[in-house]
């Protein structure tokens, strides 16, 4: 009985030790589908390269390889080019083709005497253009099938590549931002005998326009922005607002048009803290400028 | 007598072996569970002072090595930033493909983070004026899968003379495409 328990425990230990290693991918072909962009603008081109990523580390040798990239909708795409990236002059077949009736690009590689060289990584590439006469963006998924024939077995791998083509507009944004020292000093103000209270008190910027923030759109893409104040947890009794030149408090998103006009906003802080006197300025929060579409 | 004591000591040895194997089993189960399900999720905090290292993937911006600097107030800052709204993450290479530039006219150094679901998955080294990045490496603990994520750039500014972080930062919402 004890011998059986011993054997069982030993077997369990070996299985549990082996588990982490088995979680790591078992030996199989792995590949990569790389696109220069998956969000091309209408009228622009993009290139796709399909690569084997671990062929040189496997024992298996490839004698045949067929890759099909299907659903290439010719109402959306123009075929710019396609080709094999395998360098093998002795192969019985090593070429790509496009079928207009079945909307696919196919690579067929076949080696009758031997196998594909172990150093091969990139195997196929093709270049498509999003048709310039499209009027709005959209999305197309291209199913990809890899059929690999080795000396001992045939393996089929599947994947897909989704292309989200966009309306032709610049996707680059350029903005200039400047800000003052954002240093404030609390002014106790003056005592008003009639009102029996301190007046004209509050936080004042240390110098004129040291609380100024300027923003300018220097690119060709319209964007919007908003400013927000984030107090540190130790100073959450303080709040901040932003006003424009007419002293109007900023609301939500503000347009930054591409006319290059500099827009100015002043930051004001209010509230009180327990800290009364300090020799140096203390950081009480941060300001976030959010740029969005 | 000698047969009895020999049999008794064999039983005792088997008991010890059983206990050791049980302990070993518990330890290996614990290690396996930790390996599979638990990671070091130390949060990434932006440094209050500039990173000591410049971003290794930074490259000079073409035709932007001199010129006038933007005007800035004493104690303040002035920056220009240029970026592309298209960001792609390649999981096989563990890199983010992007375009983010700190033009020469800026007066501040920058550090760029890519944040998805409140998790910093990329943090650059120092990006000095006149330099841009087109790829950045992901943190090893970034857990992403193929698809589309809503994320953001977080841009932090650092004074060139003191290295101190500015109290203003920039956030840029993005749609990030993740590929395998």
Provide keyphrases for this structure.
heterodimer, A: 293 residues, mainly beta, five-stranded antiparallel sheet, four-stranded antiparallel sheet, 1 helix, 20 strands, 8% helix, elongated, B: 180 residues, alpha+beta, 9 strands
What's the topology here?
The complex is a heterodimer of chains A (293) and B (180).
Chain A (H helix, E strand, L loop, with lengths): L1 H22 L7 E5 L9 E8 L9 E8 L7 E8 L8 E7 L4 E7 L11 E9 L7 E13 L3 E12 L6 E8 L4 E4 L2 E3 L4 E3 L2 E4 L6 E6 L5 E9 L7 E5 L10 E3 L6 E8 L14 E8 L1
Antiparallel strand pairs in A: 1-2, 2-7, 3-6, 3-8, 4-7, 5-6, 8-9, 10-15, 11-14, 12-13, 15-19, 16-18, 16-20, 17-19
Chain B lengths: L1 H36 L21 E2 L16 E8 L1 E5 L4 E8 L5 E9 L2 E5 L7 E7 L9 E13 L5 E15 L1
Description:
By secondary structure, chain A is mainly beta. Chain A is built from 1 helix and 20 strands. In chain A, the strands form 6 sheets. In chain A, strands 5-6-3-8-9 form a 5-stranded antiparallel β-sheet, with no helix packed on it. Chain A has a 4-stranded antiparallel β-sheet with strand order 1-2-7-4, with no helix packed on it. In chain A, a hairpin with a 4-residue loop joins strand 5 and strand 6 (about 105-110). The longest helix of chain A has 22 residues, at about 1-25. The termini of chain A are far apart. Chain B has about 180 residues and is α+β, with helices and mostly antiparallel strands. Helices cover about 20% and strands about 40% of the residues of chain B. Chain B has one helix spanning about 1-35, and strands at about 60, 75-85, 85-90, 95-100, 110-115, 120-125, 130-135, 145-160, 165-180. In chain B, strands 1, 2, 3, 4, 5, 6, 7, 8 and 9 form a 9-stranded mixed β-sheet that branches. In chain B, strand 5 (about 110-115) and strand 6 form a beta hairpin. The chains are: A mainly beta (about 290), B alpha+beta (about 180). Chains A and B meet through helix 1, strand 1, strand 10 and strand 20 of A and helix 1, strand 2, strand 3 and strand 9 of B. Strand 10 of chain A pairs antiparallel with strand 2 of chain B, so a sheet runs across the interface.
């Amino acid at each position: 009985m004890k011998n059986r328990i011993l054997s069982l425990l030993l077997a369990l230990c070996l299985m549990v030790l082996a588990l982490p290693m088995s979680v790591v991918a078992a030996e199989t072909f792995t590949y990569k589908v790389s696109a220069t962009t998956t969000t091309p603008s209408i009228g622009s081109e993009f290139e796709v390269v399909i690569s084997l990523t671990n062929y040189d580390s496997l024992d298996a040798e490839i004698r045949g390889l067929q890759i099909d990239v299907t659903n290439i909708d010719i109402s959306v795409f123009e075929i710019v080019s396609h080709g094999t990236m395998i360098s093998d002059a002795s192969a019985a077949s090593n070429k790509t083709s496009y079928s207009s009736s079945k909307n696919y690009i196919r690579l067929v590689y076949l080696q009758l005497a031997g196998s594909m060289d172990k150093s091969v990584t990139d195997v196929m590439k093709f270049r498509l253009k999003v048709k310039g006469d499209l009027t709005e963006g959209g999305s197309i998924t291209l199913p990809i099938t890899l059929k690999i024939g080795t000396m001992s077995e045939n393996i089929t791998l599947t994947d897909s590549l989704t292309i989200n083509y966009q309306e032709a507009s610049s996707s680059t944004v350029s903005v200039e931002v400047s800000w003052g020292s954002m240093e404030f000093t609390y002014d106790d103000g003056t005592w008003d005998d009639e009102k029996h209270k301190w007046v004209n008190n509050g936080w004042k910027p240390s110098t004129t326009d040291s609380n100024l923030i300027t923003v300018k759109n220097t690119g060709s893409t319209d964007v919007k922005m908003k400013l927000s104040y984030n107090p540190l947890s130790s100073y959450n009794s303080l709040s901040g607002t932003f006003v424009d030149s007419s002293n109007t408090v900023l609301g939500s998103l503000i347009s930054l048009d591409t006319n290059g006009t500099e827009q100015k906003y002043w930051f004001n802080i209010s509230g009180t803290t327990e800290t009364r006197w300090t020799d140096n300025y203390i950081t009480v929060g941060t300001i976030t400028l959010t740029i969005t579409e | 007598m000698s047969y009895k004591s020999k049999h008794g000591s064999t039983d005792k040895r088997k008991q010890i072996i059983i206990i050791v194997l049980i302990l070993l089993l518990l330890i290996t189960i614990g290690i396996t569970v930790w390996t599979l399900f638990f990671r070091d999720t130390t949060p990434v905090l932006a440094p209050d002072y500039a990173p000591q290292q410049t971003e290794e993937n930074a490259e000079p911006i073409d035709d932007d090595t001199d010129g006038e600097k933007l005007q800035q107030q004493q104690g303040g800052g002035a920056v220009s930033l240029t970026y592309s709204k298209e960001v792609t993450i390649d999981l096989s290479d563990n890199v983010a493909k992007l375009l983010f530039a700190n033009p020469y006219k800026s007066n501040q150094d920058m550090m760029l983070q890519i944040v998805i679901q409140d998790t910093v998955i990329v943090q650059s080294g120092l990006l000095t004026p006149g330099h841009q990045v087109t790829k950045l490496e992901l943190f090893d603990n970034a857990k992403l899968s193929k698809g589309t994520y809503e994320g953001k750039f977080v841009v932090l500014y650092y004074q060139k003379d003191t290295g101190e972080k500015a109290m203003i930062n920039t956030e840029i919402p993005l749609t990030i495409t993740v590929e395998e």
